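Figure 6 in text form: structure in, sequence out.
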């Protein structure tokens, strides 16, 4: 979603969270960043779309070099900024097509 496409009903904070760059804005290990980059996941919106299509956070664990520890680390970082809860659920899924 680009800012031009953002519907007026979507709160500004939500747009900001969805466009957050995971590779530069979160404190993630290089290995995790490389895995996300390989999967084409750059923003929070990219991640949520990938998870939604794949059936949950488990879909990431099947990716090369992205195991349970990486998944847990990513969820913890996303919890800190209010994107996900500890179960990998997000209120932002309702804004993802």
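Output sequence:
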């Amino acid at each position: 979603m680009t800012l031009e496409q953002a519907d007026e009903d979507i709160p500004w904070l939500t747009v900001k969270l969805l466009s957050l760059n995971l590779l530069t804005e979160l404190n993630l290990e290089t290995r995790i960043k490389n895995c996300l980059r390989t999967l084409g996941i750059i923003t929070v919106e990219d991640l949520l779309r990938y998870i939604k299509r794949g059936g949950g956070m488990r879909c990431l664990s099947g990716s090369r070099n992205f195991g349970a520890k990486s998944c847990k680390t990513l969820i913890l970082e996303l919890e800190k900024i209010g994107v996900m809860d500890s179960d990998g659920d997000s209120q932002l899924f309702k804004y993802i097509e």
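Caption detail: The chain has a mean pLDDT of 87.
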